[in-house]
Amino acid sequence: MSTFGLERVLSPRTIALVGGSSRPSSLGLAVLMNLKACGFAGRIAVVNPNYTAIDGEVTSPDLKSLPFVPDLVAITAPAAAIPGIISDAAAVGVAGAVILSAGLGHGAGSLAETVAQTARRHGMRLIGPNCLGVMVPRAKLNASFAAHQPAEGRLALISQSGAVAAAMIEWVAERRLGFSGIVSIGDQLDVDVADLLDYFAQDDHTKAILLYIEAVKDARKFMSAARAAARLKPLIVVKAGRVAQGAKAAATHTGALAGSDAVYDAAFRRAGMLRVYDLRELFDCAELLGRGFVPRGNRLSILTNGGGLGILAIDRLVELGGVPASLTTETIAALDRVLPQGWSRANPVDISGDADAARYVSALRVLLDDTNSDAVLVMNVETAVAPTEGIAEAVTRCVGDRRARKSEVAALVLASWDGADARTAATFERARVPHFPTEDDAVRAFMYLVRYRDASIALAATPPGSASTFARRTPAARNVIANALSEGREWLDPVEIVALFEAYDIPIVPTVVARDADEAVDKAEPFLAQGLAVAVKLFSRDIRHKSDIGGVILGLRSRENVAQAARTVLARARAARPDATLQGVTIQPMIVRRTARELILGIADDPTFGPVIVFGRGGTAVEVIDDKALALPPLDMNLARDLVGRTRVSRLLAAYRDVPAVSEDVVPLTLVKLAQLAADIPEVAELDINPLLADETGVLALDARVAVRTPARLFAGQTRLAVRPYPSQWEGELDLRDGSRVVVRPLRPEDEPMVESFFKRVTAEDLRLRFFQAMKNFSHAFIARLTQLDYARAMAFAALDPRTGAMVGSVQLHSDSLYENAEYAILLQSDLKGKGLGWALMQLLIHYAKSEGLKRLSGEVLAENTTMLSMCHEIGFTAATEPTDHRIVNVVLDLSLPVADALGVDILIRRGRITAA
Fold first, then answer.
1. CA distance 744 to 729
2. Which of 237, 388, 423, 875 has the fewest Cβ atoms nearer than 10 Å?
3. Hey, is 215 helix, strand or coil?
4. Which long-range contacts (C-beta less than 8 Å, at least 24 apart) are formed by 87-90?
5. CA dihedral defined by 467, 472, 474, 475, rounded to 10 degrees?
6. Which pairing describes strands 133-136 and 152-159: parallel, antiparallel, or unpaired?
């Protein structure tokens, strides 16, 4: 249900506590005390039939007896009573409940199922059960049994663990930070991580979102919410259970490499989330992101009075992928003027153990002006020469002065004070200077900020367009899979694998089939004539591991050897597996590429996130080497390059000594093709290419295995992918009423240049009517929001001139979190208005919205845009002036009504043709 009803739950005007108690140390009393202590301004009622009053509060026997309907009910009653409490709450119209009690059970027939069904029928939201509770300091809400009241701030915390939430409250209090909201979600009977991501992403009071999660229930919902939220603000996540053995029973090398935690890591990376690995790192990230600090890059300058500590900090920085800032000539000269002889004249800037406050400030001012540096870490070791607290005060005054003159990004300063006491820490807190107990903590925190910055840039990067449109023959590939499944087989045979790979333009060694020794000689002859040795392999769909029974013989160079090898492997198979059906043998040329690198590529199956693309170092010792990286499909070339670059073997793809470099982008392109195969054909359960040879001539799959099965579950769009892929089925041609034709297709992320060019052919007035303001310049970030769509929540169709390929119009929709209502927008090339293009695009969008199960299509139209309002009226939209702004008309189309049929309009997609008749 996503954000539906959450505003009343997290900012209630009235609250009822059901299960309040006067018993010391009880859950009910703890929650009541917190509700009263937080300063909640609304009415608080206590419900308990066994008391007349609790802590001075008059009680009521049940919810129906209350003189008002509470927005939020906090429940601490025994588990057995909760179904009745929820039934009463739903009957009186309560918006939501936070169930702190445990013991409701799980699954069919449990108390939890009964509670969930009741709440769902009445549109009532549930948080918990088995949770710490909910705290929203801004709303003066503390419906929890936390030990302390959290301060108001800009961090939101979503936690599956009540203990983690409580620990965060204690830590943040020490750092004078605060929260915009804390929600302990417990068993996630209704409200889950994705719902709260959607909520806090749109919350103006939240600057960053912290998450502690143990498992994701709905992968697509989670990925959609996380990707949307990460575009707006930092998301930092700790995931528990990193050592779970998720790949023990994997049937392929690829599956063995794709452990459960590695898949979560890939999901977080794809969503643009910043993953940390323990609570201390989560705290450090909160220290920085909670104050809004983001560096310009990964170059760090270090200012210290202790040379050894500075060197340790540089070592850690390099180990974590950071870059020690290289001091400019001007910076060194400036430091020479303010520092005594003997300073290090390099980074780290060692200003000697006798440095006082004035020396620190003089050096810091110079470093903050250095354009080669993105941040400065100021370190101090206490000596008897200069008081450490005085140095801290001077440094913070310098930072404050710089912030008053420059942007905070340009003045990012971190501090590490060895042995700092409470007064020194308070000095940094007052000045909002992030401080850390050791140089290691400070450098790690800085590098997490760098990773967040890099993830934000990658999330909005425009991919190149050349790879996503590679030719593929999906129907042919589906026929191969369907044939295997119809015969009840779980594995493709070698010939079928070749056909599958050829359909997706993945080069693979030729494979021919021979029924017996004589035919094997005939089939091997063309290869032998080229001077190639051949391999003879057993061909039996009943025997998966051919090598185990001696069913593979290599290096054959004569007709006689081929014939003997064929007879041998067939005889071995009959002896070892007399029950197996033998189709014969396969003949393959033995390809020798002297400089080729052996890689592994594949598709693994994760029970939560579905297909996962795996890449790494190939060969027989692939699991031992364990050099791999994972990514969620679909992939574009940017994502594929990143996947390759996260492995050690990527360095071997470049030229070295007498070995030429692997052809540029040939490996990433192969990964894009493999990801597209996973998107197109959900029946491919696992796929393993090992090895894939890669050299300056290209790539070639030497051996592959493919497991197929009918998927137990498909997401909307008939795919197993957690990230909904590009909907190619909506590509086609649109016939307009005047007889002309345009090509239509969904927008892709790589369409940014095309969209930018399109905007230049739209008049300023039409742009104003579309965006409600004058639009002169269109930034990358602005266009990226239009083109980088989450197809699970949004759609945009581009109309293209069939002669030039130029964009001539677009129509788009963005759904609400319930996926019931979608807002639309439309824009046409100004000189093409009046030809029926806008009408046809709207009909196409209506057809798409209906096919997706959306219930309403709505939009905001300026009252002066009479052309759009006239079209909306003809189609069947209702219209009403916005009460708070009479310049705007709200239009709504009920998609349950037969609008298109009533107008005599038919939208069909057949063989790539969309007809508007």
1. 11
2. 423
3. coil
4. 87/118, 88/62, 88/63, 88/64, 89/63, 89/124, 90/118, 90/119, 90/121, 90/122, 90/124
5. 160
6. unpaired
Cα 283 to Cα 296: distance, rounded to the nearest angstrom: 22
Question: What confidence tens digit (pLDDT) does each residue in 428-442 have?
Answer: 888 888 888 899 989
Q: Do the beta carbons of residue 55 and residue 33 sit within 8 Å? A: yes
Angle, CA of 177, 179 and 180, to the nearest 5°: 140
User: Degrees (nearest 5) of the Cα angle 871, 875, 876?
Assistant: 115
- Amino acid (1-letter code) at residue 13: R
CATH of 294-433, one of 3.60.20.30, 1.20.120.450, 3.40.50.300, 3.40.50.261: 3.40.50.261
Residue 845 · residue 880 · CB < 8 Å = no
CATH number of 731-914: 3.40.630.30
Residues 28 and 59 sit within 8 Å (Cβ to Cβ): no
| 606: β partners | 610
Average pLDDT for 754-781: 88
Q: Residue 282 pairs with which residues in a beta bridge?
A: none
Nearest one of 770, 797, 794, 774 to 861, comparing CA atoms: 770
Residue 735 has, within 13 A of its CA and on its CB side, a CA count of 13
Residue 348 has phi, psi (to 5 degrees) of -75, 145
Q: What is the bridge-based pairing of β-strands 141-144 and 133-136?
A: antiparallel
Cα end-to-end span (Å), the chain: 37
Residue 257 has pLDDT above 70, yes or no: no
Element (H, E) at 657: none
Q: Give 609-629 pLDDT, tens digit per residue.
A: 999 999 999 876 666 667 889
State pTM to two decimals: 0.87
Q: Which residues contact 897 (CB under 8 A, 6 or more apart)?
A: 876
Residue-wise pLDDT tens digits, 792-809: 999 999 999 999 999 999
The C-alpha atoms of residue 707 and residue 683 are separated, in whole angstroms, by 9
Number of C-beta neighbours around residue 281 at 10 A = 18
| Helix ranges (DSSP H) in 596-745 | 622-625, 637-645, 666-680
- Whole-Å CA distances, 482 to 17, 478, 506, 708, 717: 58, 6, 20, 9, 19
CATH code of the domain occupying 523-582: 3.30.1490
Given strand 856-862, what is the order of strands in its sheet?
A: 878-881, 888-894, 856-862, 821-828, 807-815, 794-800, 741-746, 732-735, 913-916, 907-910
What pLDDT, on a 0 to 100 scale, did the predictor assign at position 431?
86
Could you identify the residue written with the tokens 């919205």? 849
**Contact, 767 vs 757, CB < 8 A?**
no
* Amino acid present at 885: D
Q: Taking the CB of residue 483, how many other CB atoms lie within 10 A of it?
A: 13
What are the residue boundaries of the structural domains of the chain, listed by start?
1-146, 294-433, 523-582, 731-914
Compute the Cα dihedral for 46, 52, 55, 58 and give only its sign: positive
Q: Fold match between 1-146 and 294-433? A: yes
pLDDT tens digit sequence for 223-245: 999 999 998 888 999 998 766 44
Q: Domain spanning 1-146 has what CATH number?
A: 3.40.50.720
Distance CA 884, CA 869 (A): 19
Q: Give the whole-angstrom CA distance, residue 229 versus residue 217.
A: 18
Tell me if 541 sits within 8 A of 581, measured CB to CB.
yes
Calculate the alpha carbon distances from 550 to 406, 503, 536, 620 in Å.
73, 31, 11, 17
Local confidence band at 250 (pLDDT 50, 70, 90 cut-offs): very low
- Read off the tokens for 180: 């915009």
